[in-house]
Design brief:
With about 375 residues, the chain is α/β, with parallel strands linked by helices. The chain folds into 2 domains: about 220 residues, Rossmann fold (3-Layer(aba) Sandwich), CATH 3.40.50.450; about 55 residues, Arc Repressor Mutant, subunit A (Orthogonal Bundle), CATH 1.10.10.10. It contains 18 helices and 11 strands. α12 links the parallel β7 and β8.
């Protein structure tokens, strides 16, 4: 993987222009047009008569140092002139000049071959939304389909967690540098994705995200995926922005039906009314992408169930029988073992803990 000097310079320019783009990008829907401008036009468009400072800093840019910095952060760099650059991104008029990758970069090749799916939704997701996102991530990744998302709170993180639980492919597109965990509370998830899957970013190493970085990141997610699935989101939410980018690129859009009176269901329900694919499970996504009859192999959940240690399977059986309190479950095993086992089952997505502390089998 490699990146030419001109593309590395373009990426450095975006970093320098970050504060100006924040205020002069022209709004979310005009952001791709701004990012498609040549360097000089972009600088002039967002800086105007204050461009001298940017020009002076850009004149000191050193492509060799940029490559060294990326390597020191454990990243590979790939520019849009390289043969290995994803064909899905070439179609974008504002394709990222450089992709900085941390982890298994071969997953980018699988986006086209295996038909990646972006799973997006609200940061303040409901329990239903989190369960659906986790199940979609788990079963799609378990079927070998790369799951793309943005590692945000709520739906995004749940989709990544599901994919990791199935030991399947997942790609987190970061709003800042690929090495900059955002949100910071998701540092552990960021590390797990980097170790087992792939982190991707348009921006240089170490860069913190701006507000415009999030819709900019969303356009990459939509482009990498053959389908974008919105799990939950209010009207005007970032997940609907991602869906709009997908539609602009001619990609499929799916949505998970929600309660008509719920604000979190307003976005998906509107997409469904406009003709989006109804997504009740990973099977609906696979049907839409590959035709009826393609199913999650044995279901990833079933495969995981078969691999459960006997102690965890016995504990899960008890929960399925309606024994939900820790006190009841601890009648047949030490409470420490029960709590540890329930934590493992919760992490794997088999059980969920209610507000009262009782455990129940998860969908």
């Amino acid at each position: 993987m490699s990146a030419c000097d001109a593309c590395l310079r373009r990426t450095a320019l975006l970093g320098l222009l970050g504060p100006w783009i924040e205020h002069g990008g022209g709004g979310v829907r005009r952001l791709p047009a701004a990012l498609a401008l040549p360097d000089d036009e972009l600088v002039q468009g967002v800086c105007g008569d204050k461009r001298a400072a940017v020009d002076a800093r850009l004149a000191r840019f050193d492509a060799t140092q940029a490559r060294t910095r990326a390597a020191a952060a454990g990243m590979a760099v790939l520019c849009r002139h390289a043969r290995a650059y994803p064909a899905e991104l070439v179609q974008m008029p504002d394709s990222p000049a450089v992709l900085h990758t941390l982890g298994d970069a071969s997953l980018l090749d699988r986006c086209g071959a295996d038909g990646a799916v972006a799973v997006v939704g609200s940061r303040q997701a409901s329990d239903y939304g989190l369960q659906m996102a986790h199940a979609l991530g788990r079963d799609l990744a378990g079927a070998g389909v790369p799951v793309v998302s943005g590692m945000a709170y709520g739906v995004d993180s749940a989709a990544h967690e599901g994919a990791l639980a199935a030991r399947g492919p997942t790609i987190a597109v970061m709003p800042g540098g690929a090495d900059y965990a955002y949100p910071r509370s998701k540092t552990a998830l960021h590390a797990r994705i980097g170790a087992a899957a792939l982190l991707v970013a348009e921006m240089p190493p170490g860069m913190r995200p701006f507000r415009w970085s999030f819709p900019a990141r969303n356009r990459i997610m939509a482009a990498l995926a053959r389908m974008t699935v919105v799990v939950e989101g209010t009207e005007g939410s970032g997940s609907l922005i991602t869906a709009a980018f997908a539609q602009d690129l001619g990609r499929d859009v799916g949505a998970v039906p929600g309660q008509a009176t719920s604000a979190l269901a307003a976005g998906p329900n509107r997409l469904l009314a406009e003709g989006a694919v109804v997504v009740r499970s990973a099977a609906d996504v696979l049907d839409a992408l590959y035709g009826p009859g393609v199913r999650v192999p044995g279901s990833a959940a079933a495969v995981m169930l078969e691999r459960l240690e006997p102690r965890l399977r016995l504990l899960l059986d008890r929960v399925e029988q309606g024994v939900g309190t820790v006190d009841e479950l601890a009648r047949e095993a030490p409470v420490g073992e029960v709590l540890a086992g329930l934590s493992e089952l919760e992490l794997l997505g088999f059980v969920t803990r209610g507000a009262g502390g009782d455990y129940a089998r998860r969908a």
